[in-house]
UniProtKB/TrEMBL annotation:
GO cellular component: cytosol
GO terms for biological process, alphabetical: galactose metabolic process
Protein name, entry field: Galactokinase
Coiled coil: none
Segments forming domain GHMP kinase C-terminal: 304-379
Matches recorded under Pfam families: GalKase_gal_bdg, GHMP_kinases_C, GHMP_kinases_N
Family stated for the protein in its record: Belongs to the GHMP kinase family. GalK subfamily.
Residue span, Galactokinase N-terminal domain: 20-68
Gene Ontology molecular function, alphabetical: ATP binding; galactokinase activity; metal ion binding
NCBIfam families, alphabetized: gal_kin (TIGR00131)
This protein's UniProt keywords: ATP-binding, Carbohydrate metabolism, Galactose metabolism, Kinase, Magnesium, Metal-binding, Nucleotide-binding, Transferase
Length: 404
């Protein structure tokens, strides 16, 4: 039997966060907030280059119960999916900043720190926090953004006593990116935080990072008798281990050498990157492959957005496969575990999702074939001695919000 990921509804998740809060802090929380993980349907490794991505918010959320403590510290207790004993971190407010804390709590208190620095959260105050989550860690489904966005939105709304405006949410996206870049040391690009804070039930987001625009589009596969199956290979990845930064570094270097703000602004980017790499004594072949992926993936995602608009899922599926192949052959972020899933699903619309180097593969499959396909994927993994995958059928859920 394939292993399915657990996704609790809002009331159950809020209750779990409140219960954890009470058991550690012996008081009731003042409120509970949630932020979802995301799946990126197409457009990977382009957000930091001014490209286009089409993610949606998952129905798997991270919930945070909060209470102002009146102390000069943050006390955080957290239960990640599958964890039986909670992890605890206590840190004085004035010790939070670049590189500190250098553990998972950096996502949580780092996001609050960056939002205070940006003036979005009016002032620093001590907080007790209890976190529970259904977003699997290291699966390419943005468990880190779910941590950041729930903590940042919760602290903001607790401090102001009202719902965050759209402008405040936009500012929180930037604060969460800063936390990830400076506190945690992962040079990620902003796709995840935008999806988590701006997702909507039933909708995917077409995010144009050059324009800074987000357009919500209907994403209803079940209207076609189809489903989006996520297969988490359980071959974990980390985005602060240097691999992600090495890919981004090439794109940032080429962009800077061309005197541009983003790679998207550069005409003939592949040819010009090759001349630059040769002149600089860099590996021209690798440079061209990386740049080619980013340029083509952005064009492909623009085409995918148009295909979605005219409900043309055949074209959309083909673009997904092209995207996976480019991430594998040009960007080289696909592991054998990811490739095994991609090969097992045959000619269906399928691709790795997120940063790669491990994580998940998504596949568009007929609703009545989901169970059989999950079984086949699990068997293929077992036959190759890979970890047992876990599965989720994903439909677009709500963005970050107050639960209680
Ligand atoms: C990770 C990063 C994002 C994005 C994706 C790849 O999820 O956090 O910013 O770069 O990888 O598209």
């Amino acid at each position: 039997m394939p292993r399915w990921m657990e996704t609790r509804d809002d009331a159950t998740l809020a209750n779990a966060a409140s219960t954890l809060f009470r058991s550690y802090f012996s008081e009731d929380p003042e409120g509970v907030w949630a932020a979802p993980g995301r799946v990126n349907v197409i457009g990977d490794h382009v957000d930091y280059a001014g490209g286009i991505s089409i993610p949606f918010a998952l129905k798997a959320n991270t919930a945070i119960a909060l209470r102002r403590s009146g102390q000069p510290t943050y006390r955080v207790v957290s239960l990640a999916p599958g964890q039986h004993e909670a992890s605890r971190v206590e840190i004085p407010i004035n010790e939070v900043g670049p590189g500190s804390p250098d553990n998972w709590a950096g996502y949580v208190v780092g996001a609050i720190w960056a939002a205070i620095e940006a003036g979005v959260i009016p002032c620093a105050e001590g907080l007790d926090m209890a976190i529970v989550s259904d977003v699997p860690v290291g699966s390419g489904l943005s468990s880190s953004a779910a941590l950041e966005c729930s903590a940042a939105l919760g602290s903001l709304e607790l401090a102001t006593g009202r719902s965050a405006s759209e402008a405040e949410r936009t500012a929180l996206v930037d604060a969460c990116i800063r936390a990830e870049n400076e506190v945690v040391g992962a040079s990620t690009g902003g796709l995840d935080q935008r999806a988590s804070l701006f997702g909507q039930e039933g909708k995917a987001l077409v995010i144009d990072f050059q324009e800074g625009s987000t357009t919500l589009v209907p994403f209803d596969l079940s209207g076609h008798g189809l489903a989006l199956l996520i297969a988490d290979t359980n071959a974990p990845h980390a985005l602060n281990d240097g691999q992600y930064a090495s890919r981004r570094g090439v794109i940032d270097d080429v962009t800077a050498a061309m005197g541009a703000q983003t790679l998207r602004e550069v005409d003939n980017a592949v040819v010009r990157a090759a001349s630059w790499a040769n002149a600089e004594g860099r590996d021209a072949e690798v440079t061209c492959k990386r740049v080619k992926h980013v340029v083509e993936e952005t064009d492909r995602t623009a085409e995918a957005a148009k295909a979605l608009e005219r409900d043309d899922l055949n074209t959309f599926a083909k673009l997904m496969r092209d995207s996976h192949e480019s991430l594998r052959d040009q960007y080289e972020v696909v592991t054998p575990e990811l490739e095994s899933v991609f090969q097992t699903v045959g000619s269906r619309g399928s691709r790795m999702t997120g940063g790669g180097f491990g994580g998940s593969v998504i596949t568009i499959v007929a609703e009545d074939e989901v169970a059989a396909l999950a079984e086949r994927i699990a068997q293929a993994a077992e036959a190759q001695g890979f970890p047992e995958p876990s599965f989720m059928v994903a439909t677009p859920g709500a963005g970050a919000r107050r639960l209680v």
